[in-house]
Design goal:
The complex is a heterodimer of chains A (290) and B (276). Chain A has 290 residues and is mainly α. Chain A has helices at 4-36, 54-61, 63-95, 101-109, 116-127, 134-141, 149-152, 154-179, 183-191, 196-223, 228-233, 245-255, 259-289, and strands spanning 38-39, 49-50. Chain A is globular and about 75 Å long. The chains are: A mainly alpha (290), B mainly alpha (276). Chain A: This is Sorbitol ABC transporter membrane protein /mannitol ABC transporter membrane protein.
Chain lengths: 290, 276
C-alpha cells in the first residue's frame, strides 16, 4: 500500500529513536564489559591494568555475592507472593458492587504513586521505629516489647515496604482483567448450579492467568533492581542481611571505589535480568500477533 | 429471602472493602496528619497525636531549612523535560511504525522494549564515570537525558498502541485529497492522537517523578529532585517526624493527584499494551 516515498520517510522518522536507544544500550554496556576485565580503583587513577576474569572470580567467590543473590531472590519472590495473592483477593473484592467504590479504589492504588524514598522512610520511622513508631506504640499498649523490625528482620521489613508499593499495581491490572470477564458465561454457570468455588476455579482463574503472568514478569523486572528502599532504610545491613545485587554493585563500585569488581557485578546483574526478560518478551510478543 | 442475602452480602463487602482500603491508605493518611503537628507531638502515641494541636510550623521549617522549592522545581523540570524530549523523538517513530509497518517493525518494537530490561546497575559504573568526566554530575541537563532514554521505550510503545487504533483509511483519504506528510500529521493525525499522547505524558511524568535510581546516584544538591531531597532525611538530626511528614506530603501530593486521573492509562502503559 505505502509508496516507496512514504517508506523512506517512515525510516527517517524512526531512525532517531533507534540510533539513540542503540547507543544507550551499547556504549555504557560495552564500557562495563571493558571495565570488568580491568583492575581499576577510583582511588588509584592511572593504575588500570588488564586482569582477565579475576574480577568475576572475586565477585562470585565473595560470600557477599551469595548472600546478595539469595536476598535478591527472596525479595522478588516474597513481594510476588504477597502482591499476587493479595492482588487477586483485592481485585475480587473491589469488583463487587458496594458504596463508595470509586473512593476505595483511589485509596488502594495510592501507594503506587508514592516515590520509593518516601515510602521507605515513612515505614522506617513512623511505623517500624522501635521507640516512636506506630507498631511500637501498639505493642506497648498491649504490654509487649516493641520489635526492632529493621535490625532483626531487615529483609522481611523491606519486602513488606516494597509489597505495599506494588500491591496497587497487581490489584489494578487484575481488576481491569476481571472487568472483561464474560458476565453471561458466569450467570450461565451459576444457573447450572456451579458453586462459587467452582466458578472461581474454572472461569475466573483461567481468565486471569494471562494477566497474572504479565504482572509477575513486569514486577520481576522492577523488583530485580530495588535500590532506593534499601539505601534509605538499612544500607544493606546489618552485615549483608538486606543487601541485594544492585546494592552490592553500588557498594562495590561507588563506596569501595572498585570499578572493576563493580562492573563484573553489573554484568552478572544484566545476565540475571536477561533470563527473566526472555520470558517476558515472548509473552508480549505473542500478544502483538493477536 | 434472596433479597435479604444480597443485602447482607453487600454490607459485608462494603465493610471489608472500606476496611482494607483504609488500611492500605493509612500510611499516606498518617503522614498527612503528622505534617500538621509539632515535632514534640508527632512522636506521641497515635491517640495523643490525633488530639494534639494542628500547626503549619513544619511546612515553614522544611522550606526554610532545606529550600524545598528548589528541589520541587528540579522534579518538575526533570519530569517535564524528559517527557517532552521523549515525545519529540517518539511521536515520529511511533507514527511510522503504526502506519507504515515494515517486515521488521515487530522485531524493532521488541528490541526497543528489550532495552528497558537492562538493569540500571549494569551500566552504573560507566554512566557515573562519564557524568564525572563531562562535568554532568548534579546537573539537570544530564539527568534529563538519562530519564528520557530510560523511558523512551515505554513512550514509543504507548504511543504505538494508541496510534494503532486510529483507522488508517482516514490517512489514506487525507492523502488522496492531496495532503502531504506534514499536513497529514498536523491536521489529521494530531487531533485524533491527542488523548493518547496526553495519557502517555501523564504516565511518563509519574514515572520520571518517582525515578529513584539515577536521581539518587547522579545528583547531590543543586540538581537534586524530590527523591534525593527526601533521601537526605535518612540520616536526620534531632526530632524530624513532623518535618519528614510535611516534606513527604509535598513530594507526593502532585503525583498522587495526577495518578488518580490516569488509572486506566497506567495499566495499559505499564503492561506495554498487554492488558487493556
Amino acid at each position: 500500500m505505502a509508496t516507496e516515498h512514504s517508506r523512506t520517510a517512515a525510516r527517517l522518522m524512526v531512525s532517531p529513536a533507534v540510533i539513540l536507544l542503540f547507543l544507550w544500550m551499547i556504549v555504557p554496556l560495552a564500557m562495563t564489559v571493558y571495565f570488568s576485565f580491568l583492575r581499576y580503583n577510583l582511588l588509584m587513577p592511572g593504575m588500570e591494568s588488564f586482569t582477565g576474569f579475576d574480577n568475576y572470580y572475586y565477585f562470585l567467590s565473595n560470600s557477599a555475592f551469595m548472600d546478595a543473590l539469595v536476598n535478591t531472590l527472596l525479595l522478588v519472590g516474597g513481594v510476588l507472593v504477597i502482591t499476587i495473592f493479595g492482588g487477586v483477593a483485592l481485585a475480587l473484592l473491589l469488583d463487587q458492587p458496594f458504596k463508595g467504590q470509586g473512593i476505595v479504589r483511589i485509596m488502594v492504588i495510592a501507594p503506587f504513586f508514592v516515590m520509593p524514598t518516601v515510602s521507605a522512610l515513612v515505614w522506617k520511622n513512623m511505623f517500624m521505629n522501635p521507640v516512636n513508631g506506630m507498631f511500637a506504640h501498639i505493642a506497648k499498649t498491649f504490654g509487649f516489647q516493641p520489635f526492632d523490625f529493621l535490625a532483626h528482620a531487615p529483609l522481611a521489613s523491606i519486602i513488606l515496604i516494597v509489597a505495599w508499593s506494588w500491591l496497587p499495581f497487581s490489584t489494578l491490572i487484575l481488576l481491569t482483567a476481571l472487568q472483561s470477564l464474560d458476565q453471561e458465561q458466569m450467570e450461565a454457570a451459576e444457573m447450572d448450579g456451579a458453586s462459587w468455588m467452582n466458578r472461581f476455579i474454572y472461569l475466573t482463574v483461567p481468565h486471569l492467568t494471562r494477566s497474572i503472568t504479565v504482572v509477575i514478569l513486569i514486577q520481576t523486572i522492577f523488583l530485580l533492581s530495588v535500590f532506593a528502599e534499601i539505601l534509605v532504610t538499612t544500607n544493606g545491613g546489618p552485615g549483608t542481611a538486606s543487601t541485594n545485587i544492585p546494592y552490592l554493585v553500588y557498594a562495590q563500585s561507588l563506596l569501595n571505589y572498585d570499578v572493576g569488581g563493580g562492573s563484573a557485578g553489573g554484568i552478572i546483574a544484566v545476565i540475571l535480568a536477561n533470563i527473566v526478560a526472555v520470558f517476558l518478551m515472548r509473552m508480549i510478543g505473542k500478544n502483538l500477533e493477536t | 429471602m434472596a433479597r435479604k442475602t444480597t443485602q447482607t452480602r453487600t454490607a459485608v463487602v462494603t465493610v471489608a472493602a472500606w476496611t482494607i482500603g483504609l488500611l492500605i491508605f493509612f500510611p499516606i493518611l498518617w503522614i498527612i496528619i503528622l505534617g500538621f503537628k509539632s515535632e514534640g507531638d508527632a512522636i506521641k502515641t497515635p491517640l495523643a497525636v490525633l488530639t494534639s494541636d494542628w500547626t503549619l510550623a513544619s511546612y515553614h521549617e522544611v522550606q526554610e531549612r532545606s529550600n524545598y522549592f528548589l528541589h520541587f522545581m528540579n522534579s518538575v523540570i526533570l519530569s517535564l523535560g524528559s517527557t517532552l524530549l521523549a515525545l519529540v523523538i517518539a511521536i515520529p517513530a511511533a507514527w511510522s511504525m503504526a502506519f507504515v509497518p515494515g517486515k521488521r517493525t515487530k522485531d524493532l518494537l521488541m528490541w526497543m522494549l528489550s532495552t528497558k530490561m537492562m538493569p540500571a546497575v549494569g551500566v552504573l559504573v560507566p554512566m557515573y564515570l562519564m557524568f564525572r568526566d563531562f562535568g554532568l554530575l548534579d546537573t539537570r541537563i544530564g539527568l534529563v537525558v538519562v530519564l528520557t532514554l530510560i523511558n523512551l521505550p515505554i513512550v514509543i510503545w504507548m504511543l504505538y498502541t494508541y496510534f494503532k487504533e486510529i483507522p488508517g483509511e482516514i490517512l489514506e483519504a487525507a492523502r488522496m485529497d492531496g495532503a502531504n506528510l506534514r499536513a497529514e500529521i498536523l491536521h489529521v493525525l494530531t487531533p485524533m492522537a491527542v488523548p493518547g499522547i496526553a495519557s502517555t505524558v501523564l504516565l511518563n511524568v509519574i514515572l520520571a517523578w518517582n525515578e529513584a535510581f539515577w536521581t539518587l546516584q547522579l545528583t547531590t544538591s543543586s540538581a537534586a529532585p524530590l527523591t534525593q531531597f527526601i533521601a537526605s532525611y535518612s540520616s536526620p538530626e534531632g526530632l524530624f517526624y513532623a518535618k519528614l511528614s510535611a516534606a513527604s506530603t509535598m513530594a507526593i501530593a502532585p503525583i498522587l493527584i495526577l495518578g488518580w486521573f490516569s488509572q486506566k492509562q497506567l495499566v495499559r502503559g505499564l503492561t506495554f499494551g498487554a492488558v487493556k
